[in-house]
Please model this.
Amino acid sequence: MFETGVLNLSLQDFKDVVAISAGNTLYVSEVLLCDPSARSSPHKIRALVGNVGKPGLALLLLPKNTMRREPDLETWQMVNHNEFDGVFQDNFRGTSLHLSLTGYQQPLNVGQHGGRDKEVFYLEAVVAALHDGSWVADLDIWNAVREPNDVQRKLIQHLPLVCSHSDAEQADFSYLAKLTSIDKWYEFLDRPQNAMVVRAKGNWTARLAFATATANMEQPLVVGSEKICWACAKHLILLHGLNPCKQTFLY
Model:
């Protein structure tokens, strides 16, 4: 019955719901608020102060067909695709995530009649990635980082937090032949033809945006935490029969 005290909703009504707005509280799935390396359960909920500005119980859904900025001739000079120099750093401090409503709204039939207000309804919302205030992409975070299907299990790999490899083994990425450093969104959207590493160390917002965008594009991804052990990455790539030259690495 949640906060209404009278409405008894089915669990099926909450399928694909990523957040609930009730009163002055937003109940949000933790996967929308965590670093992708945390691998949070989609069943965990966080309560935040706020609402969507509508009365009643609002169940928020994300669109499955998302859009992203396409490469254009005006930004070609911003695409460097420099080779990775082995330095781990954060070059995406200007990246932020924003939630907005699309205008789509659908009342939910709760079996009660005679009321003038829509007590429970679905709202469609979009999570957009912006960098320095400019739109980059809309993100389907829910389907990208929740419990993976068989395809996602192969495409998205997570490195262990600790390992027994030596410092020299951890730093050796020579098996990749060429590794490109991604330091701007333009460089990510205009993807190189070889393996690439997104440098967003410690920036969970940017890391979540890149992990989601890569998954939405159905591209392979290896997720690290504070740094990448390249020996562990090689093991995962060989274990799952992936092409090392087509990998995206995220740390």
Remarks:
- Residues 121 and 133 are 31 Å apart (CA to CA).
